[in-house]
Amino acid sequence: MIHNSIRRAPPLLFLALALILTPVFAGDRDVADLLCEKGEKAAKSRDYEGAIKYFQRALEEHSPHPEACFGLAKALEKLGRTGEAVQAYLRCLDELKGVKELSRAQKRMEGQARRAVNKLGKGYQQLSKLDAKFVEDLVAFGRKNFNGSPEWSKKAFQTALLLDPGNKLAKSYLERLRGVRTPAEAAGLFEAMILDDKLENWNPGIKKPWNCQGGVLSIDVKKSANNVIKTQLEHRYSVRATFRHTGEDYGRRTFGLLIGETEDTAWALLFSWADTVDLVKFDSSGSDRIQSKVLDNHKVSDWATLRVAVDGNEITTFLNGKMLFRHVAEKDTAFDGAPGVMIERCSAEVRDFEVQR
Fold it and tell me: What pTM value is reported for the model?
């Protein structure tokens, strides 16, 4: 996990974020036009800070309003706030696309906005490159505060996406935080153990290392291998991961989720060589297939998500969101232990390993 400390976010990021995320709504257009006129007068008087406030209020009153976007962009450019100016010019151009027939003034505005983006864009791209480390720090901050301060996490991930719209980690976490407002609400979310190309949270059970590219773990074993998360889970938890078979078999193909592993026992939800999905118990005497289901209309070469939910001595299993088995064990602590992945005599890939506590 990344442990870098976050730097203070520059103001331009939050204004640019506000520009991008401002919703389209129907307010009072006349009021917005009046505010825009006041912004233009302030800009002519070189009161650019005042002009920015008027243009922002105009956009709050009514959107879309390309004239207000353009005026805001020019004022920001005059103050040397290049990144924000580019974002405002781009928004202006985007809003002009929605106008059925551009007026002469709007056509001039469109041309000026395009030239401004071309002129300023090169410098803004350099800024984005310099901010790559800052994006990394924002994601690290968001992950660190995911459960304790979900609102701060949201802001960090949103700002990271402003600079890096394709950031998969920030998108994934924001999706999980949708509708979450308090730490209590965040406590029940799935905590991703593997979200990038790092394996700090894994204790490999085999000598041959996993090949991890783009968040996908791939392995090819002729015998068997268990990778166990160091985290100890008890009483009530859920584990899930997405798997697929990649074509090589060395006897009996088996792969899937391992749960509750201790020195004496373990349980697993496995895809098997017989094209079934099985709930299996392992102990000193060997293995016992508790429940089994034939895989109808499913190829093991396709990605499929397995999930195991534990509630005391009761276990419920799922395949692609649909319930498979429910089983009640004799001991309340039967499923206490470490979670992980089991691969036996085949090649397979794993992604999105997650734990909910």
Answer: 0.49
